[in-house]
Design brief:
Length: 76
């Protein structure tokens, strides 16, 4: 079997959002660390992971305060 190597496409400053919008003041031979691809919708934040809440099997958390009835029983 022949192995195929996946090669990443080289990006250029001409494809950068900042260069296309006339916002880049740098004249470098290669794209800088602030490179963002030009897209029809403009700049978009990167997708983030969803936050998933865990379901607790316990009826009461270990850090919960005592109920009013439990507090009254302690001080009675």
């Amino acid at each position: 079997m022949a192995q195929r190597r996946m090669t990443a496409r080289k990006v250029t400053c001409e494809e950068c959002f900042f260069r296309c919008q006339g916002l880049c003041a740098l004249e470098l031979a290669e794209p800088c660390a602030t490179f963002r691809p030009e897209a029809p919708g403009g700049l978009a934040p990167p997708r983030q992971m969803r936050f998933a809440f865990r379901t607790e099997a316990r009826g009461r958390a270990s850090w919960a305060f005592p109920s009013a009835q439990e507090q009254a029983a302690l001080h009675a």
